[in-house]
């Protein structure tokens, strides 16, 4: 009788322990559901902000996003209570969720900075991948939790059978306890069925969302490809339709301004012709810059490096901008004592980079100031060349510097009106350097000037 009673007590404690473990597993399962819901809410809030671009929508996203650390802490506590050695799995899930949230933050930051379409599309693709991986990890964790709950229910069932057998063999009077345990076991089995249905529903929802997002990405890629094709056709037509008459305007206005065929009756006409010539050249340069920018962004620009003299390229670039520098009262100083004799460079593109940098420095420099153009071997790459352009002009704040690197952005309306330019110089130069496999770095301080370092 004593042995049967001890067996009954031992089995009863087993049932109670398994039932508590089932309750802990159920709590952890609910918390993973909450995290899945939080991830979905953050996606919805982010999408609303990307569509509306309002401060309220951004605040909604940040409020949802800000609740993630608290949820992660609750998850860690419940995971420790449910299974003390489950910390690694919890850490993996948390890391993937954090990466998903960081990818959402990155897309918002890029949208606020007005990036290229290709850059934004790549960030959105990385976000979808990170979010899908986080959902898959949650689904995997829920499956594992469900398996542990099933195992505990099986253990409780076995313990209950042992307890019931001991009660019958020992003619025990503890039948009410057995009935209570049986009821708890039945509730646990109902919980198990409920949890299994939740896991299956979550898996189906995950598969559905992955399919929908994949289809959306494919549609977006097709739309982007179609838009690029339309843009390419437009730019090709614009190149021909605008450059042909512009060349005629530039040629004839140059003839009138220089009085090539004889004196012009009224001297004011030569001044008008010079204005037409300057405007025509400015418009032609703008068209060429737009075409180059489009080719680079589409990845269709050709880089043809050959052995050439960096010092000679710098001298040719300085010669081209010399008239502009003289009119602005700016002196360009070449510092090339340590310049390499030869380097493998695309001479036309590197000269274009130097002309853009020098032109920009002249426009925004101070009258009577000095611009330094330095050439030396690159420190990081022994076969690369380092070009440095420094001016002592007005300089830029960090916010102005960010705008200056965006196509067609103006640092300030007043400064742009005084300096002229197309707003494409720095963005185009940076993309040309990167297309060359080089490094582009720019620093600026208000009242001190701007320094651009190019390594190619």
Automatic annotation (TrEMBL):
<dbReference type="InterPro" id="IPR003594">
    <property type="entry name" value="HATPase_dom"/>
</dbReference>
<keyword id="KW-0418">Kinase</keyword>
<protein>
    <recommendedName>
        <fullName>histidine kinase</fullName>
        <ecNumber>2.7.13.3</ecNumber>
    </recommendedName>
</protein>
<dbReference type="Pfam" id="PF05227">
    <property type="entry name" value="CHASE3"/>
</dbReference>
<keyword id="KW-0808">Transferase</keyword>
<dbReference type="InterPro" id="IPR005467">
    <property type="entry name" value="His_kinase_dom"/>
</dbReference>
<dbReference type="InterPro" id="IPR036097">
    <property type="entry name" value="HisK_dim/P_sf"/>
</dbReference>
<feature type="domain" description="Histidine kinase">
    <location>
        <begin position="237"/>
        <end position="456"/>
    </location>
</feature>
<dbReference type="Pfam" id="PF00512">
    <property type="entry name" value="HisKA"/>
</dbReference>
<dbReference type="InterPro" id="IPR036890">
    <property type="entry name" value="HATPase_C_sf"/>
</dbReference>
<dbReference type="InterPro" id="IPR003661">
    <property type="entry name" value="HisK_dim/P_dom"/>
</dbReference>
<dbReference type="InterPro" id="IPR007891">
    <property type="entry name" value="CHASE3"/>
</dbReference>
<keyword id="KW-0597">Phosphoprotein</keyword>
<dbReference type="InterPro" id="IPR050736">
    <property type="entry name" value="Sensor_HK_Regulatory"/>
</dbReference>
<dbReference type="Pfam" id="PF02518">
    <property type="entry name" value="HATPase_c"/>
</dbReference>
<dbReference type="GO" id="GO:0000155">
    <property type="term" value="F:phosphorelay sensor kinase activity"/>
</dbReference>
<dbReference type="InterPro" id="IPR004358">
    <property type="entry name" value="Sig_transdc_His_kin-like_C"/>
</dbReference>
<keyword id="KW-0902">Two-component regulatory system</keyword>
